[in-house]
Structure formats: C-alpha cells, structure tokens
Specification:
This protein is of the alpha/beta class and 92 residues long. It has a single domain, classed as Oxidized Rhodanese, domain 1, CATH 3.40.250.10. The protein contains 5 helices and 4 strands, in the order H-E-H-E-H-E-H-E-H. Strand 3, helix 4 and strand 4 form a beta-alpha-beta unit.
Length: 92
C-alpha cells in the first residue's frame, strides 16, 4: 500500500518529528508531534500506535532519520517527507 493510500484512508498514524515550535506554526490535522530527539525515549509509545506510522517533518530529512531508527526497532513505518506533502494527501 502506498503512503498516499495509507494517509487518504486514515489507516496510518501521522507523526511529525519537527520541534514543538515548528509544529505550532502549522501541521497536519490529527498528527502527533514527537520531536526527533525524543524518539529513542518514546519507542514504547510508537509500538502502541495504530500502524503503520507515517513520519513527516519540514523537508523529509528528519523524518527519514526517524524512519530508519524506528525500522531498526522493528516498527512498521514510512517516511512521508514534508508535512506539506502529507497534508496534501490527507486533504485531496
């Protein structure tokens, strides 16, 4: 299943890994903000999320790092790239 399909059908949990200040400046409705630097301490929280998990940030770089780390922990997740892209998929 594509990332676009997961987002459009609301089958994925969307996690934004930007800072709280960035998140407050605009985000995908219904997304969860877990900053990149907090992810290692919050792996159990990710394990309890409705999967798969789609991660996003400003450009896709931080969400790519988060995706690689979470996959190494055995989680089903994908890099959604920019939150603007994820937002577009959700609303179109």
């Amino acid at each position: 299943m594509s990332i676009e399909t997961m987002i459009k059908t609301a089958q994925a949990t969307i996690v934004d890994v930007r800072t709280p200040a960035e998140f407050a400046g605009g985000n995908v409705v219904g997304s969860i903000n877990i900053p990149l630097h907090e992810i290692p301490q919050r792996v159990e929280e990710f394990k309890s999320m409705q999967g798969p998990i789609v991660l996003c940030c400003a450009s896709g770089n931080r969400s790519g790092q988060a995706t690689a780390y979470l996959k190494s922990q055995g989680l089903d997740c994908e890099n959604g790239g920019s939150w603007f892209d994820v937002n577009y998929y959700k609303n179109n």
